[in-house]
Specification:
mainly alpha, 14 helices, 288 residues, elongated, Endonuclease III, domain 1, Endonuclease Iii, domain 2
């Protein structure tokens, strides 16, 4: 403790510290801008106010349209180059034979159906011959195509109705075809387009389903909705050929599990996320 009356000397502050203190005090007196409140920062973000919020770059608007007329036209052009004259791969000689073959092709391959139908049509050469059968009698002949009980029932039922209601002739309009047992829009479109050359819709089988989704021509999964989407963007005069082209492309190149993207003429305009090789960006929603 220092002697009475003697005050200890305090350490002197450096002059630089005095300058900093004076400068800070001066800023406060002059009116330096106050720190913005949370509310003001929110207003800047929402109303495009001043400061950093106003300087943010706006997000780019996506302009890619997968069903734009130009893109669809380019897809059709390339399909014409790949498959200029393709048609239905099911072996047939009459509208009735095509109808039967198409019914049998459900959940089967065209190759398998084509192995069955020559002997089937030799054994039962007319619609009336099929109409005289029972489903149980036909089952052994179509067993190898799968789901043979339902298919035999549909074929025999269609034959009986054609004989009874249409004079033994396969009807050539959508309404009457859909009235036949075992016939939905896919089968009706095959018969109308391939045999009668009537474009009343687009065939949607597993190949058309897969390839159309990969090409982003549709985002739907239900065949009816896929058909509606395709009918809106494909010119009517191309409906029949387009169906066959996509089916052939699905068989020859755009396989379900491992598509052959490296050798595909459509590769650089296809953004499917399940491509095996790509020179363009892929889109997560574009997939089989």
């Amino acid at each position: 403790m220092p002697p009475r009356g003697i005050t200890p000397r305090r350490p002197a502050r450096p002059g630089g510290q005095d300058k900093v203190t004076r400068a800070v005090a001066s800023e406060k007196r002059v009116g330096a801008p106050a720190k913005p409140s949370n509310n003001s920062r929110a207003q800047a973000r929402t109303a495009g106010g001043e400061g950093k919020a106003a300087g943010k770059h706006p997000k780019h608007t996506r302009t890619y349209d997968p069903v734009a007329h130009e893109r669809v036209a380019e897809i059709l052009k390339r399909l014409d180059q790949l498959y200029p004259d393709v048609t239905c791969a099911l072996t047939h000689g009459t509208a009735w034979e095509l109808l039967v073959a198409t019914i049998l092709s459900a959940q089967s391959t065209d190759v398998n159906v084509n192995r069955v139908t020559p002997e089937l049509f030799r054994k039962y050469p007319t619609v009336k011959a099929f109409a005289a059968l029972t489903p149980e009698e036909l089952q052994p002949d179509v067993r190898s195509t799968g789901f043979f009980r339902n298919k035999a029932k549909s074929v025999v039922g269609a034959a009986k109705k054609i004989v009874a209601d249409f004079g033994g002739q396969v009807p050539m309009n959508m309404k009457d075809l859909l009235a036949l047992p075992g016939v939905a829009r896919k089968t009706a479109n095959v018969v109308l387009g391939t045999w009668f050359k009537i474009a009343d819709g687009v065939v949607v089988d597993t190949h058309v389903h897969r390839v159309s989704r990969r090409l982003e021509l549709t985002r739907n999964n239900l065949p009816q909705k896929i058909e509606q989407d395709l009918m809106r963007i494909i010119p009517r005069e191309k409906w029949i050929l387009f169906s066959h082209q996509i089916i052939w492309h699905g068989r020859r190149r755009c396989y379900a599990r491992k598509p052959g993207c490296g050798d595909c003429l459509l590769e650089n305009i296809c953004h499917a996320s399940d491509k095996t090789w790509s020179t363009v960006e892929t889109h997560k929603d574009a997939k089989a």
